[in-house]
Amino acid sequence: xxxxxxxxxxxxxxxxxxxxxxxxxxxxxxxxxxxxxxxxxxxxxxxxxxxxxxxxxxxxxxxxxxxxxxxxxxxxxxxxxxxxxxxxxxxxxxxxxxxxxxxxxxxxxxxxxxxxxxxxxxxxxxxxxxxxxxxxxxxxxxxxxxxxxxxxxxxxxxxxxxxxxxxxxxxxxxxxxxxxxxxxxxxxxxxxxxxxxxxxxxxx
Length: 204
Fold this sequence. Notes:
Elements: H1 2-27, H2 30-37, H3 41-44, H4 51-72, H5 87-113, H6 123-145, H7 155-174, H8 180-202
Helix pairs in contact: 1-2, 1-4, 1-5, 4-5, 4-6, 5-7, 6-7
């Protein structure tokens, strides 16, 4: 019986993903999701209390991946002075961003541009805030290891830097008109530009 329930739940989520991606959150109908999943409309609410809860469940894998990606910047291997010069660190971070866009582009478009009317609306600002908090923690951790570095960075600048990162992420999601080599070149140049700036500010 539990296996059957799990199968129905997974079917609802799979169909809902397709409908949300095709029509956006506001225009997706629970009735259509239920019909396509082969169940009565009222039965959807035995699994999800609302369309918003179903929407969040569809995007849960992406949200978890976003959280892991942002927090990965503060992992042990990144807390070293060599991070300002080693291309390997930059390439790893860029590679992880590209992988996420490749795996979740439809969900990212849904989250970033078509989540109106849900509890996830305006999520770009939440990502920027999460990035800002992770950045502050990174500065604190680095200062604890390397007391000579400068972490007296304007809070407003940190906000600007976090917002810039989110905008670059949105551009990656939205534009498929550039080939991969051009995307790689742009990201490598952004990484070099960014690291040179942080090197100047923090003076490692």
